[in-house]
């Protein structure tokens, strides 16, 4: 099937490469000429394990191409995906649909014959109807259907998630569109992947509800971690004890400095604003947003406390800048709150991240960027672990101790054992553990 994908960012590029690997003929479109030029040279503008090889393989096979010419790509496509950004709108937190609406107009002008327009971007309830109305205004005689097909990709595991999903959700009002979507995802039938067909509004809400629920689990266990610290309990054992209950499940029960990334912060806020707008406020999600924002701002205080109440004139080594491992995504990362707060308190901050250094350089001032873990630690008064990259999990602790001015570690991801750190002579603080 001929597929066009408008937007060659994270979701569009991963989806395009995977659809091409399914055997479809895919063209990824973007207005950014430099991005398309890089992709045509085989350069991947984002960090996602395995994506470079998948793109290269399908480009070589002739199934995956890139262009800035939307009209040419859309003209012969049976399905056109909208995979553009929907950031939080400044001032009110609603999803900004400017790019979605612009894509809808461009697609309407270019489509030829029956075309299925698939909204892959994360959008509020009712966006599918808006897209259809916009396109109908441009092309009153157009033969098309608008479908919702939300993505559920985890950064760092996106290819696996696309090819082996828990489910595929499709919101379609037209039986013809359902058949097109079945054909697109036909390779997943072999794996007996559940495909949930519903109406557009339900599909759009499923995406927001899923992210809000996962964000709630993270926030819940973070609050339990704070409680554990007060009563002498161990949050990791609490998480295991409740996670073994199949009604709850073990995933997203890892205490830490708060959630970040491209999805949870903006999607929870957008859901809150939509619910308020229609008179059905989501008080639980409102609390999750508030608690998480506050938590990220409080993390610098833990580092200051570990240094005896002041970091003025001291050197802090920060390991991990991205919001999670296996990605270079800095959006809403806890480091964006922690590092400026430490600098304002008078600390000199050094930092290293295996993938996010390029992005981080655009976001921080007066931060000392290092080329490796031990260079970052050298001369530090305290080490703060913000991202649980694998290479941070097996540090040579004797070497770490010898390089530091004082053996102090604040482990905001609980990747070391308190007893082990005490035996090595560290003053060690973690999250929710005695």
How would you describe the overall organization of this protein?
There is one protein chain. This protein has 434 residues and is an alpha/beta fold. The protein has three domains: 2-198, Rossmann fold, CATH 3.40.50.720; 208-289, N-(1-d-carboxylethyl)-l-norvaline Dehydrogenase, domain 2 (Orthogonal Bundle), CATH 1.10.1040; 298-429, NAD(P)-binding Rossmann-like Domain (Rossmann fold), CATH 3.40.50.720. Helices cover 44% and strands 14% of the residues. It has a six-stranded parallel beta sheet with strand order 3-2-1-4-5-6, with helices on both faces. The protein is globular, with a radius of gyration of 23 Å. The model has no long low-confidence stretch (mean pLDDT 96).
Question: What tags apply to this protein structure?
Answer:
six-stranded parallel beta sheet, 434 residues, N-(1-d-carboxylethyl)-l-norvaline Dehydrogenase, domain 2, 14% strand, 14 strands, alpha/beta
Provide a concise account of the structure shown.
By secondary structure, the chain is an alpha/beta fold. Helices cover 44% and strands 14% of the residues.
Radius of gyration: 23 Å
Detail the poorly predicted runs: none
Number of alpha- plus pi-helical segments: 18
Q: How far from one another are the termini?
A: 57 Å
The CATH superfamily of the largest domain bears the name NAD(P)-binding Rossmann-like Domain
Sheet with the most strands, sense and barrel status: 6 strands, parallel
Biggest sheet, strands in spatial order?
Answer: 3-2-1-4-5-6
Helix content: 40-55%
- Might you state the CATH topology name of the largest domain? Rossmann fold
CATH architecture of the largest domain: 3-Layer(aba) Sandwich
Per CATH, the class of the largest domain reads Alpha Beta
Number of discrete domains? 3
Shape: globular
Structural class: alpha/beta
Which percent range describes the beta-strand content? 5-15%
């Amino acid at each position: 099937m001929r597929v066009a994908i408008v937007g060659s960012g994270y979701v569009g590029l991963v989806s395009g490469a995977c659809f091409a690997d399914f055997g479809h003929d895919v063209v990824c479109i973007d207005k950014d000429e430099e991005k398309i030029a890089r992709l045509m040279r085989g350069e991947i503008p984002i960090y996602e394990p395995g994506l470079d090889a998948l793109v290269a393989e399908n480009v070589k096979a002739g199934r995956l191409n890139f262009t800035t010419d939307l009209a040419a790509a859309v003209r012969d496509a049976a399905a056109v995906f909208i995979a553009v950004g929907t950031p939080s709108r400044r001032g009110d937190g609603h999803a900004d649909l400017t790019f979605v609406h612009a894509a809808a107009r461009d697609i309407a002008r270019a489509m030829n014959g029956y075309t299925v327009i698939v909204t892959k971007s994360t959008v509020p309830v009712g966006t599918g109807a808006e897209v259809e109305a916009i396109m109908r205004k441009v092309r009153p005689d157009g033969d098309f259907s608008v479908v919702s097909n939300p993505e559920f990709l985890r950064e760092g595991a996106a290819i696996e998630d696309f090819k082996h999903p828990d489910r595929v959700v499709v919101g379609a009002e037209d039986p013809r569109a359902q058949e097109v979507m079945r054909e697109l995802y036909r390779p997943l039938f072999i794996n007996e992947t559940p495909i949930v067909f519903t109406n557009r509004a339900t599909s759009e809400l499923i995406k927001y509800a899923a992210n809000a629920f996962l964000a709630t689990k993270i926030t819940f266990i973070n609050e339990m971690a704070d409680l554990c610290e007060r009563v002498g309990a161990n949050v990791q054992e609490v998480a295991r004890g409740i996670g073994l209950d199949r009604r709850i499940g073990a995933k997203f029960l890892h205490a830490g400095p708060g959630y970040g990334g491209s999805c949870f912060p903006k999607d929870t806020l957008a859901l809150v604003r939509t619910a308020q707008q229609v008179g059905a406020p989501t008080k639980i999600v409102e609390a999750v947003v508030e608690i998480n924002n506050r938590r990220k701002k409080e993390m610098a205080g833990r580092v200051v406390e570990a240094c005896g109440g002041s970091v003025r004139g001291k050197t802090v080594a920060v390991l991990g800048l991205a919001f999670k491992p296996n990605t270079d995504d800095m959006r809403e990362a806890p480091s964006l709150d922690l590092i400026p707060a430490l600098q304002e308190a008078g600390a000199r901050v050094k930092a290293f991240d295996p993938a996010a250094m390029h992005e981080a350089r655009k976001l921080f001032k007066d931060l000392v960027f290092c080329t490796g873990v031990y260079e970052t630690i050298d001369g530090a008064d305290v080490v703060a672990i913000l991202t649980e990259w694998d290479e941070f999990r097996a540090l040579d602790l004797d070497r770490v101790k010898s390089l530091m001015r004082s053996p102090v570690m604040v482990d905001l991801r609980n990747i070391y054992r308190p007893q082990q750190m005490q035996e090595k002579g560290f003053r060690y603080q973690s999250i929710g553990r005695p």
